[in-house]
Amino acid sequence: MGNFFTSTQIYDNGSLTKEQFIDKFCKKMGEEGYVTCDSDESELSYILKFADSCKWVTITSESYEQGNQTSQKDTGRIAKMLDTTCVNTVVIDSDCAILELYDKSGKKADTLAIGRADDYFGDDIPQPSEKIWKPFLSNGSKWNRFIEICNKDEVFVEDSLSELAPVIGMDSGNILFSAEDAEEDENNIRLGFAKTAVKKEKKLSLNAAFKQIFGDGLKDAGFQIVKGRYPY
């Protein structure tokens, strides 16, 4: 039996250091109403994996193992949140891999399949758009090389993914990263987030506003509030 796993590659369009990227990620999560917390208190938990001299940061979560819908939703949200491009990668039984690219709007812009995708898609296998993927080709990489790798039929699709990764500037090892492979080291960062309590602002009534603004002044001038239909 082959491997099943899901992860997302985040394009670091700001060429940030690891620390700067983490700070930015946490700040943007804060703007969405989440604060960092201990893992046992977290509502959302992520593992970020970095690689030296690589403009893509890998992110995954234990929750992704239960299905891809959570991962897809996160990928679109993170792309929009960070104003960048994200690629969600799903490996199915080591037979094929589905890569979905989400643009800055958080919408899915393109899909490509690698490996024995006909077992899952039949004749309706998605073909990659050169316009969408070509801007991410690394220096010296050609589009025909990209297509050649996508069309390979390896015994294990992970081999094709590892070969494709450097063509689009990704790390060969990180593209195969899954939550169950995560180890504690300087390149694997675990982040937990909890939703902050939103305090609803109490609306000020006209009556309360009058008392607040004019009440004290009128009281000093010898007036007092009386009960009635027209108290003022």
Poorly predicted residue ranges: none
Helix/strand-derived class? alpha+beta
- General shape: elongated
The percent range for helix content is: 25-40%
Q: What is the quaternary state of this protein?
A: single chain
End-to-end separation in angstroms reads: 82 Å
Give the helices and strands as they follow along the chain: EHEEEHEEEHHHHEH
Percent of residues in beta strands? 15-25%
Count every helix, treating DSSP H or I runs of 4 or more residues as helices: 7
Description:
The protein is α+β, with helices and mostly antiparallel strands and 232 residues long. The termini are far apart. It has an eight-stranded antiparallel sheet with strand order 2-8-3-4-1-5-6-7, with helices on both faces. The protein has helices at 18-31, 68-81, 118-121, 130-133, 143-150, 157-164, 206-220; strands spanning 5-11, 34-37, 44-49, 56-60, 86-92, 96-102, 108-115, 188-195.
What's this entry about, in short?
The protein is of the alpha+beta class. The protein has helices at residues 18-31, 68-81, 118-121, 130-133, 143-150, 157-164, 206-220, and strands at residues 5-11, 34-37, 44-49, 56-60, 86-92, 96-102, 108-115, 188-195.
Features:
22% strand; 232 residues; 8-stranded antiparallel sheet; 8 strands; single chain; alpha+beta
Write the layout of secondary structure elements.
Layout: E1 5-11, H1 18-31, E2 34-37, E3 44-49, E4 56-60, H2 68-81, E5 86-92, E6 96-102, E7 108-115, H3 118-121, H4 130-133, H5 143-150, H6 157-164, E8 188-195, H7 206-220
Antiparallel strand pairs: 1-4, 1-5, 2-8, 3-4, 3-8, 5-6, 6-7
